[in-house]
Amino acid sequence: MNRETLHKEILKKKSFLCIGLDTDMQRLPNCVKNADDPVFEFNRRIIDATRDYCVAYKLNTAFYEANGASGWHTLDKTMRYIGKSHFTIADAKRGDIGNTCDMYARAFFEAMNCDAVTLSPYMGSDSVTPFFKYAEKFSIVLGLTSNPSAVDFQNAKDQDGNDWFMHVIKTASGWGTADNMMFVVGATRAEYLADIRKIIPDHFLLIPGVGAQGGSLEDVVKYGMNKQIGLLINASRSIIYASSDDAFDSAAAKEAQTIQQAMSKFIS
Amino acid sequence: MNRETLHKEILKKKSFLCIGLDTDMQRLPNCVKNADDPVFEFNRRIIDATRDYCVAYKLNTAFYEANGASGWHTLDKTMRYIGKSHFTIADAKRGDIGNTCDMYARAFFEAMNCDAVTLSPYMGSDSVTPFFKYAEKFSIVLGLTSNPSAVDFQNAKDQDGNDWFMHVIKTASGWGTADNMMFVVGATRAEYLADIRKIIPDHFLLIPGVGAQGGSLEDVVKYGMNKQIGLLINASRSIIYASSDDAFDSAAAKEAQTIQQAMSKFIS
User: Fold this and answer.
1) How many CB atoms lie within 10 A of CB A48?
2) pTM
3) Low pLDDT (below 70) residues in chain B
4) How many CB pairs under 8 A join A and B?
5) Which residues fall within 8 angstroms of residue A82, CB to CB, at 6 or more apart?
6) How far apart are CA A197 and CA B64, in angstroms?
């Protein structure tokens, strides 16, 4: 899915919600535990119930790898089940030398056919540019993350006294364009969004941290929205674990709808 | 495997060689292509032929993920085949928030039962310390990598005018100990090893870049060796693709033995 289509989907659904399918085998409701593939059954029901309220799904690879080869199979099957109606993100935070990135690109853009993969920038341009060989696919580079220890390095200063994450976003944004790159910016750090928008006015931002982690939708919109909306706000636990009873999918739908309705006010 | 045992294995074998099983499906010799699991068959023959010359094997997860769920199965099967006689490394370069790291630790330290996993430090201590819950397992944090674009960020300066990778190694080394952490330092940048050893005299270093990437064994030993040897030097392509004919395993063994013999001179 390209940027233009993503923008159209956002306008159509009046939503820029991304749902994070961080499905933990150990937190499944009892009612799916006897299915052939309990994690897939859980995902399938969440997807069926929430499709209309979101434009994207993000699957965090760790939660699938924890179940070994069968977990990878579930990851792949879930991506296929979502299909091409939604923007799909493999939240993998990969980053390696060039010939290895070619392999990761094959894994996520060919075998799994996702629209985007998250990448960690520590190893520089070699760890991002190989992914650009694929048209209409996105590399989503970590900028400013939502976790407490993000400050360890991302808020350390560069030699000009600027925060390191600003140095990273500035440098990395020169490697590609708004048509093949996005950046991760945590909602818990919304005060930085205005400065980030000065560097990358056009890129989409993937924003975790609204919901369980406490970030504010209003602040993110105020400082981060651009002409194409330019935001994918991710919520994971607050939606998929809204209830642990048999009607967990309806509870997830209700939660997703509440967020979608709040978002709709910002889309004219 | 703990640090003490690793040291003993190095002395016993007079080798600190780590062999990288970056096995590319598209570069397999014809003679294994009809096996049930061609990548595993290739790995099995390489392992059988090289066991005596190395103390560690490193499997780059990208090369397995490129083959989807069956690739992950091959990765797992290869780790089990190596067994506990050698130090096993999942070269995964993961890095995420705390609850996600718990999942990665489950994937690599429980399901796959490796001795170590490589981690990218961009997200700070949250992305490393969850792995410390497992005794006698190692988090190998990216310090200075061997790829050309490592300079993009790793050699940018911090506010004190120091290289960024030194800032990272200094900070990250405070999170754990030499018994649960190692660092990646590329052999192509051996001139930095003396400075790095001032910060982390005791930690093992995982050193890629000798072989195909052109780093020098002598320089690495000169600047990087400590009282416990403290080095795992990785070679991948130069060993596993030493030949593409039917005797690819003997060719790999010969190459590994040549490196082991060069290493033996530095072990008294």
Assistant:
1) 12
2) 0.96
3) 212
4) 182
5) A47, A57, A88
6) 38
**What per-residue confidence (pLDDT) applies to A190?**
82
pLDDT at position A95 over 90:
yes
**In this structure, what token pair is assigned to residue B45?**
């023959």
What count of residues does chain B have?
A: 268
pLDDT digits (tens, 9 = 90+) for A4-47: 999 999 999 999 999 999 999 999 999 999 999 999 999 999 99
The beta-carbon neighbor of A103 closest among B62, B147, B152 is B62
Candidates A8, A14, A93, A254; catalytic one: A93
A16 closest CA partner among A259, A178, A268? A259
Residue B76 sits at the chain A interface (C-beta within 8 Å): yes
Q: Which domain holds residue B105?
A: 3-264
State CA B53 to chain mean position distance.
16
Say whether B227 sits in a helix, a strand or coil: coil
Strand stretches in chain A, DSSP E: 17-20, 56-60, 87-94, 116-119, 138-144, 181-185, 204-207, 231-235
Is A111 within 8 Å of B66 when comparing Cβ atoms? yes
What total of structural domains would you count in chain B? 1
CB contact under 8 A, B69 and A72: yes
Would residue A265 show up in a list of annotated catalytic residues for this protein? no
CATH number at residue A108: 3.20.20.70
Chain A CB within 8 Å of residue B107 CB: yes
Q: Are B223 and B190 in contact, with CB atoms under 8 Å apart?
A: yes
Q: pLDDT tens across A55-66, in order?
A: 999 999 999 999
Please answer whether residues B145 and B139 qualify as being in contact, where contact means their C-beta atoms are separated by less than 8 angstroms: no
| Interchain proximity B62–A168, CB inside 8 Å | no
